[in-house]
Fold this protein.
Amino acid sequence: MSWFERIRPSRIKTERRTRSVPEGLWTKCPACDAVLYRAEIERNLHVCPKCSHHMRINGRERLLKFFDPGSTTELAAKIEPEDPLKFKDTKRYRDRLVQSQKQTGERDALIVMSGKLVELPVVACAFEFRFLGGSMGSVVGEKFTRAADHCLEHRTSLVCFSASGGARMQEALYSLLQMAKTSAALKRMSEARLPYISVMTDPTTGGVSASLAMLGDVNIGEPKALIGFAGPRVIQQTVRETLPEGFQRSEFLLDHGALDMIVDRREMRDRIGSMLRIMTGKEPAPAQG
Amino acid sequence: MAMNFLEFEQPIAELEAKIEELKFLGSDAGAKITDEVKKLQSKSRALTTSIFSNLTPWQITQLARHPQRPYALDYVSMIFSDWNELHGDRMYGDDLAIIGGLARLEGMPVMVIGHQKGRDTKERVRRNYGMPKPEGYRKALRLMKMAERFRLPIVTLIDTPGAYPGIGSEERGQSEAIARNLFEMSNLAAPILSIVIGEGGSGGALAIGVCDRLVMLQFSVYSVISPEGCASILWKSADKKEIAADAMSITADRLSKLGLVDEIIKEPLGAAHRDPQATADALKASIIKNLAELCAQPITSLLDNRQKRLSSFGVFRE
């Protein structure tokens, strides 16, 4: 802050802040730099209409746009995080939680809904990456497990959109054990012959990729999403060589046999709907008007 | 081998050096020196007891990583007989950071799987510092499936800094390999007993650690990320590792208070490397007792209990 701003009456500063609001109407595509009208991007599921770059999308918005409009019910909505270790780094975990809850409007980093996908009953969950990097702690593990149990009870399919940096450090070993807990829930679904489709979005790494995200009957990646066990920086520090072009992107994983397919977000509903109908022995979806 | 002392053990090291000196002189001196040696030895024991009764989580981490700490194969040779090591994942290669094989425990057939670190530089490189690649986890899974088929209980010995973060690991599906193990182990029809003997490093440890009972050696640690890793992310400085080690509750003692560990095996005075045989004896007694209890359960209730155990992990409110 310059000396002038410091002595300037605060009224003027406030005015400046309000002036910046309309900036939100326009946004720049981080890939092709095209200036885009925000409402248009939202309509286009946060995919750049010019270059098809897939921008990050909030978990709740993703689910609402994935299901048939008006068909959703949120599941396990009331589960809230605790701070069993009274964890404090440069900030208290409790404060970080409150801050993230305010910022995102979510209680934790996973949202679960049941609803219809082109009339087929489905349960789907999505990570909220803005909530502590979509990290998996006790709440994420419990909600995912309940989503799977709901599928077991109602014999429906499960879809998960992951976007996570991995396990949540502030819940330490509890977080690590969520990897085992969620994988066990998926094993139960698998034994019951219920389909699970995992969609990995940018980014899916660490404990989430090394558990629930990689265990899909079908593993889907969004275009150019970063997917991996260790982050590229950690790998670079360990191996001390330049990482290959496109390393740990969806296309790289498809090449190496870790993904079944890469699907454009705008075609996600149709693709998943088509496969789930085949896997569950249903007729093809009715034609959409 | 000369004892290797950690920084916080320096007062003990000094005393021990003095004792060695006196012993050296003592070969031609009289009873007076022998007496003095005895006095110093008991003083050293008292000092060790006092230092070791009050260790910080970071000091325990250093013990868990001690270069002289017994590794999986050391315990295998001290505890089991008829050891037949089995190699390879049948897909890509044999990862020496994970060992596994058929063995007997007091006559009883078992499958033993563990992380393996190396003792000297050459061996450390060969074992990749105990950091497995996907083929290591896939070998472990192959052996576990074999154990299921032949009705062998499984003992896993956990001791890894973590799964190896390398280009090849990612190319061959590190995430998938770990996830697959968690998935299969959750319902594998064989009793699984896991013991953290050194470092329980994150997903790389859990990938052979989904179990019916979790046991930890007194000076082992188990955590979601290394204290250094946690410190550099949350505190933006790896130097804060001591604070991070404390904050994450990574020691056997703290995890047992949280109800995440079923049993702690006490280590000899000065930790496992001071008396590997005594540690192995205690470990063996624990394995015998725990396997007897697990093998007595019908497999269906064993698996039910495992599901309940896995589902119970976590703290939240509703």
